[in-house]
Design a protein that fits this description.
single chain, about 100 residues, alpha+beta, 2 helices
């Protein structure tokens, strides 16, 4: 009986963890993506160098990196190593890398 309770508890913890990860996923609508792509083409920025920082979804950018607003989108952007990245300003995590 005790083994079953421990197994059930472990399963619940795994499900709760999976739910927390899913809640952190950011979904960019096609409309938002179009707004971002159009805006960044019209408002080019100088590229910044961030040695040692990998440009992957989920990577947090340092506080020293200035993020720029995209009208009608709650996210911000910056150009790093000649690649535009979309960033969640509340976490500073990259949510999309544009090539």
């Amino acid at each position: 009986m005790r083994t079953q309770l421990i197994s059930a508890g472990a399963a619940l913890m795994l499900l709760a963890g999976a739910g927390a990860v899913a809640a952190q996923d950011v979904i960019i609508t096609p409309e938002q993506d179009t707004v971002v792509r159009t805006y960044v083409k019209k408002q080019p920025l100088a590229s910044v160098k961030l040695p040692g920082v990998e440009l992957n979804v989920g990577t947090a950018l340092p506080e020293t990196v200035e993020l720029y607003e995209v009208p009608d989108v709650k996210y911000r952007y910056v150009v790093v190593d000649n690649r535009t990245v979309l960033v969640d300003p509340s976490t500073r995590k990259i949510i999309k890398v544009y090539d």
